[in-house]
Amino acid sequence: MQPTTPLGALRALMQTRGLDGLLVPRADAHQSEDCAPHDNKLAWLTGFTGSAGLALVLADRALLFVDGRYQVQVQHEVDTRVFEIHHLHNEPVTQWIAEHLAPGARIGFEPLLMVNSQYEALCASRCEPVALDSDPFDAVWQDRPAAPCGAITAMPLELSGESSADKRQRVAQALRDAAVDYLAITLPDNIAWLLNVRGSDVAMSPVPHSFLLIDQQGDTEWFVAPEKLASLDPAAIAGVMISPPQAFVGRVAERAAGRVVALDADFSPVALRFAVEAAGGTVRWQSDPVTWMKALKNPVELEGYRASHREDGAAWVNFLAWLQREVPRREAAGDPITELEAQEKQREFRQQRASFIEPSFTTISAAGSNAAMCHYHSSPETNRPITRGEFYLNDSGGQYLNGTTDATRTLSFGPLDAPRRLHYTAVLKGFLALITLPFPNGTQGHQLDAVARRPLWELGLDFDHGTGHGVGHRMLIHELPQRIAKKVNPWPLLPGSIMTIEPGYYLAEQYGIRIENQVEVVKAAPGFSRFSTLTLIPIDLSQVEIGLLSEQEKVWLDDYHQQVRETLSPLVDEDARAWLFAATASLRVQTEA
Amino acid sequence: MQPTTPLGALRALMQTRGLDGLLVPRADAHQSEDCAPHDNKLAWLTGFTGSAGLALVLADRALLFVDGRYQVQVQHEVDTRVFEIHHLHNEPVTQWIAEHLAPGARIGFEPLLMVNSQYEALCASRCEPVALDSDPFDAVWQDRPAAPCGAITAMPLELSGESSADKRQRVAQALRDAAVDYLAITLPDNIAWLLNVRGSDVAMSPVPHSFLLIDQQGDTEWFVAPEKLASLDPAAIAGVMISPPQAFVGRVAERAAGRVVALDADFSPVALRFAVEAAGGTVRWQSDPVTWMKALKNPVELEGYRASHREDGAAWVNFLAWLQREVPRREAAGDPITELEAQEKQREFRQQRASFIEPSFTTISAAGSNAAMCHYHSSPETNRPITRGEFYLNDSGGQYLNGTTDATRTLSFGPLDAPRRLHYTAVLKGFLALITLPFPNGTQGHQLDAVARRPLWELGLDFDHGTGHGVGHRMLIHELPQRIAKKVNPWPLLPGSIMTIEPGYYLAEQYGIRIENQVEVVKAAPGFSRFSTLTLIPIDLSQVEIGLLSEQEKVWLDDYHQQVRETLSPLVDEDARAWLFAATASLRVQTEA
């Protein structure tokens, strides 16, 4: 009898391979934040569409591990009579295996989808991990989407600011300095940066799925599907040897004998460790040196960010002027603007900008209580009207030819109640406290995180997400390695770093508030750095308790709004300009009047 | 020929034992911050008296490793023709060994004086570490001071708040929960807490040098010199087996066969690891569980801290009133008060308090440029007059029967210039920012450190020490594990924790400013904690730029000074009371007037 469900198919496969269990992670070989449909085995198996999770299939049970964010969603998407739901972090799969399976149970896994620490934890669970030697899903996944084959384009020198050849020589020097023979790179944005290319395998993630091997001389072999290169001028990658992705692990093994191969300690597939060790080579676990080179932007990249933020700011102002005019009118007419309509209109305004490519992430367009969910995305089922009685939160950004933007504004269209005003003011004060903070060179994000939370803490409140993340240069919206969060992050914030600053406050089933600017880190007093804003969008001050702002805070807001007005007024639509002037009027002049 | 210098004696000893090198750390078996003269082999060998350092003696060279604080001092104290000076952290001794000695060089060390991480680093340097089986210095150190033999006294239940028997049962439960058979304790303050005793082996460190072994039933063996117990009522330690300290390592070995022995990962001598492993036991590296039990003070201990701070506050006020009266008078008379005279006078005022025992650390009494050195101690050679034209910094505290105090005030006796006023105001604002901060339960010190630095950072300035440390209960002035500093500290600040808050600013060869209060962590809004002051001493506001203070800051200062005035006015001398009233007058009333 042919198995008719994915679960049945996997169990049949397990039987033919003599497995007691099979791990099915939501992961690709690049540990991408966004998974291509081809790689989303977890969704195929379970129906779960969240961005993190892991299934363990056994002969008579099936378990799905998801984190705290997804405990509600998973109940809607997954047949919980078939899949037992467990907590990904509180009860890790390896702990479950240690406690419930007999020692020596044969657990199959794909070594290209698992990183070393996960493998070590699996070994420590006393099972017998069985590395599957090829992707076993091809055989059993009917109608599996094809592997993505997005076209790769060049990032020309006038936008990247440094030639790929020079970057490769910098990497080669780093390998020589570290006495490492080879560096194997699997992180798509590191490869894109190194080769000055961009990809299109996954929407809004403009990086190519591929692998790369570079040696101490800078000699580089790029393992990439040749079809993706059809529209790339070969001159753009002159001197780089091209090989098919399937050849990558084997080539690492060929090269590794007697050599030292650097692998990223957090992101390299354990398949590479197996290849190096089987060949008699030595693994040097470290952070991929490209991660840090990429994180410190050069002057051309920085100018690109600034230019793309001027474009994005103009699109925002056109959108906000339209919203402020239309929300009350449409509500009064009994045909209120909805989240989805606003989101679509905003996309149109962005598309009017010549350098706009695509959104940089799925827009959060959230009215009223929908904004209480930090990661809400509107759908026809959840679509709410935007009204004068509630906050409307918009978190969106664009990929532009020369940069990537990410900003959030929380807007109002009429007077709101005292708690909403107080909480909005606290979020604003936290935002201002951090964006105005100078700090010694070398300061790390976790040292600064509390600064943005203090006004909320003083009310006995907090928010349950990070305060800021890196943003790639026409690249990933969440770029590593720096973060501003409670959790320790060892990477310093240095001039040339690009971060967001985005405190918020969320009252379950009531409302959500977030104010986010993207910033660059620039030099300040000797030995000090500070943030300089990239985002140029008026901040809604209509709900601020002005009496709670300090003089310093008012000065910053007035200076910021003056910068926004002067920069954007030549760029915005004629009918948005009057709104821009009103929205950026001096707070101190108003207060004194 | 008899060797005539310590260095010569050690080289002769090395020859008889076939050693290529010998490590001489500034350490005792308890990794104490303050070393007894008996244990200060490094001072005997080199003349260096700093609180951290390490010598490596070779046949033809001798190296002394000291950290950044001591690079100047070492030049004065040590014959640098004999000892090459190296940097303790930038060029660790193990790195030096790896780079300069032949692999397999036999390096002698005392395993009671070395912790495991130091031993691992030594092994990684490719030398052959040779554990010396007994203290080899006894034979060669002529006139070696005797081992300290300070009397041990009981800390009665009405002061400790929990019986030793109950504490030992809590430890036993923790061992059962962790599936550990034995806990070996070498930290003197953990033993003092567990047994409700105090010691006197080192001045101002009221803890006994001893060792302790406790098992899952709470059965306890205390390895302590019996002479120290002469004045201790045996009932105070009923049920505890007493053995000589020399029996400790052997007993651990006896007990360890087939058992799990918990050792403190950071502080246990590697001698214990050797003993456990040689006996076929298993080491469980962890933090000594007593460290954390001790860190969360019980209500009786907390009330003791508060009471001792009232006593100490009264002594401070009497002292400050005297200073404010006498400094201008004596300067005018051409016979200014000096640092040493002030320090002695302050001790007299403390000695008038019935519960005062001794200073809790060496007083820092620093006038003018002497205060620019954070860890300055006055001597007849450095003693400076206290004058109207300069700041005077006093950092001091007392051991009281029921608690330990630590506070700093920076004082002035006449108008100072604008930079001094600005910097004093910045330090005060940093102090206020942190002491008024509520924070979510579980917050760690490194998350809060920047809050106290921000006003300095805004001036492009900073200070190069931690912002706060734990304080023991009639115990060590620097108590682990929590700290507020830039460096990551994983231990949360929780209700019952005792900390200092002590930002400062130091301008080399000019002046130093520090304001320090001791605080307890108390509950705040649900899920939140905050600091509550223990220290009750007026803060000098005469040099504050009042216009730079926020309303919130003025409110805190007024409330604080009201609390100081109301609490202390019944306790201070008659002639100090008028000064107390003036020094605690409301800032807002003054400002409005």
Q: Concise description?
A:
Chains A, B: Residues 304-521 form the Peptidase M24 domain. With 593 residues, the first copy, chain A, is α+β, with helices and mostly antiparallel strands. Chain A folds into three domains: 6-140, Creatine Amidinohydrolase, Chain A, domain 1 (3-Layer(aba) Sandwich), CATH 3.40.350.10; 153-295, Creatine Amidinohydrolase, Chain A, domain 1; 299-546, Creatine Amidinohydrolase.
Write the layout of secondary structure elements.
Two copies of one chain form a homodimer.
Chain A: H1 6-17, E1 21-25, H2 41-46, E2 54-58, E3 62-66, H3 71-77, E4 84-87, H4 93-100, E5 106-109, H5 116-124, E6 128-131, H6 137-140, E7 153-154, H7 157-160, H8 164-177, E8 182-185, H9 188-195, E9 197-198, E10 211-215, E11 220-223, E12 240-243, H10 248-256, E13 260-264, H11 270-278, E14 282-286, H12 289-295, H13 299-332, H14 339-351, E15 356-359, E16 364-367, E17 392-396, E18 398-400, E19 403-404, E20 407-411, H15 418-435, E21 439-440, H16 445-457, E22 468-470, E23 479-484, E24 498-501, E25 504-507, E26 511-514, E27 517-523, E28 528-533, H17 551-568, H18 574-583, H19 587-592
Parallel strand pairs in A: 1-5, 3-4, 5-6, 8-13, 11-12, 13-14
Antiparallel strand pairs in A: 1-2, 2-3, 7-9, 8-10, 10-11, 15-18, 16-17, 17-20, 18-19, 21-28, 22-23, 24-27, 25-26, 27-28
Helix pairs in contact in A: 10-11, 13-14, 13-18, 15-16
